[in-house]
Every structure is written in C-alpha cells, then in structure tokens.
Design a protein that fits this description.
Mean pLDDT: 96
Radius of gyration: 16 Å
Number of domains: 1
Helix content: 25-40%
CATH superfamily: Phenylalanyl-trna Synthetase, Chain B, domain 3
CATH architecture: 3-Layer(bba) Sandwich
CATH topology: Phenylalanyl-tRNA Synthetase, Chain B, domain 3
Number of helices: 5
Structural class: alpha+beta
Low-confidence stretches: none
Oligomer: single chain
Order of helices and strands: EEHHHHEEEEEEEHE
CATH class: Alpha Beta
Distance between the termini: 19 Å
Largest sheet: 4 strands, mixed
C-alpha cells in the first residue's frame, strides 16, 4: 500500500496483514487485554495521564497540526482514560482489539482498516473545507483542518475517530493497521510496536502474511 505523509511531527508505522479470520472474541487476546489493562490501571489515574510522556508527545504532535488535544482527544488518550477508570478496553473484533491493545501499551493512536474498502494510494493530510464522514459510533465527523487518512474516495481515518466506510467487520480478509507515532519515537520502539501487532494478527486472527514498514512525515 502506497502511503504519503503531508504532516510534520509524525512518523507512521504501517502493518499489512493478509488472509485474516476476523471474529468477535479471541480467548488468548482477551486474556492479554485484561492483563495489560489491569497493569496500566495500577500505574495511571485520569489525573496523571497528562504527565505520561507518550501522552505529552502525542498532544504536542496534535498541537503541531493546529489541533487542541483537550478539545479533540487523541484516540489513544481516550482509551487510556477508560483503562485508568477501570472500564478496560472495548471488545470489538480480534483485529481491532489487537490494534487497541497496542495503542494503550504505547500511548500512540492506532487505526485498523479493511484493506478491501480502501481504494488507491493513501495520504495523511489535513481535511479540506466541507470534508466529512460518518464516524464509528458517532454522528457525522467534520474534518476541515483535522488530521485525516484519505484515499481516492476521500477521508476514511483519523487519530481521533475513524469512519464506518473502512471499518473492520467479520467479512474482512486483509487488514491495514496504522500507528501514529510522534516524530521523536525511535525506530526500535516503533519496530517493536509493529512487531507486536503483527504477532497478534497472526496468533489471534490467523494472518497468512504480515508486512511492516515506517513512513516519515515532512
């Protein structure tokens, strides 16, 4: 998948998995999610999260894009707030669950998409006037001046809230995970995060092949 980054202060970790079997619940992954959530719940409180280094760096990344992270909360911070409150992670689908688990482990926003629903090359850019999409579990999401992933059919993803157009369902056979890492992130740290996602896609969703690569911002 060809991906271009037109924003600064970010590098993307890209994980592509083919031949997956998407299911509602995968036992080993569910146990891992519970264990990680419990560990993080003991470390973080809602009040302490703004001082957590990954959260601070993601917030700085948002501000570099002209976004107020207190008004438009990064998806990773939203998940970590749930964990700190003792609510744990949502149980969605194994592919999405794997991405959400990686997000709370690193503190970075992750997106997970059905590759069959993406058309043409992808660009990470700011939304244009009038652009919008139907957000997952939310009303229409207006995208002007907000960071978006866009393909030939328009915007479909964001480090805040993704669209219904490319969301993962049980019919998905190939997955794309995008990790929005702050530019200071080391290659080793991003490689490790991608490797964990790749391993979980293989173990929990039966992926036949998984590839990873890094794309730098401008």
């Amino acid at each position: 998948m060809k991906i271009r980054v037109e924003l600064r202060a970010v590098k993307l970790g890209v994980v592509e998995a083919t031949g997956v079997h998407v299911t509602l619940v995968e036992e080993s992954l569910a146990k891992e999610m519970n264990a990680v959530c419990e560990r993080l719940r003991r470390i973080h409180t809602v009040e302490s999260l703004p001082d957590f280094e990954p959260v601070r760096r993601v917030r700085a990344m948002f501000r570099a894009w002209g976004m107020d992270p207190s008004k438009y909360r990064p998806s990773s911070e939203a998940l970590l707030r749930r964990v700190a409150q003792g609510k744990g992670l949502y149980r969605i689908l194994n592919g999405v669950d794997a991405a959400n688990l990686g997000s709370i482990e690193t503190g970075w926003p992750f997106g997970c998409y059905d590759l069959a629903r993406i058309s043409g090359p992808i660009t990470l850019r700011l939304g244009a006037p009038g652009e919008k999409y139907e957000g997952i579990g939310k009303k229409t999401w207006h995208l002007e001046d907000r960071p978006v992933l866009a393909d030939d059919s328009g915007p479909f993803g964001s480090p805040i809230s993704d669209s219904t157009r490319t969301m993962v369902t049980e019919q998905a056979q190939d997955l794309l995970a995008i990790i929005y890492a702050p530019e200071q992130t080391s290659t080793a740290a991003l490689d490790e995060a991608m490797s964990r996602v790749a391993e979980r896609f293989t173990r929990s969703a039966g992926a036949k092949t998984v590839t990873t690569h890094i794309i730098h911002g401008i």
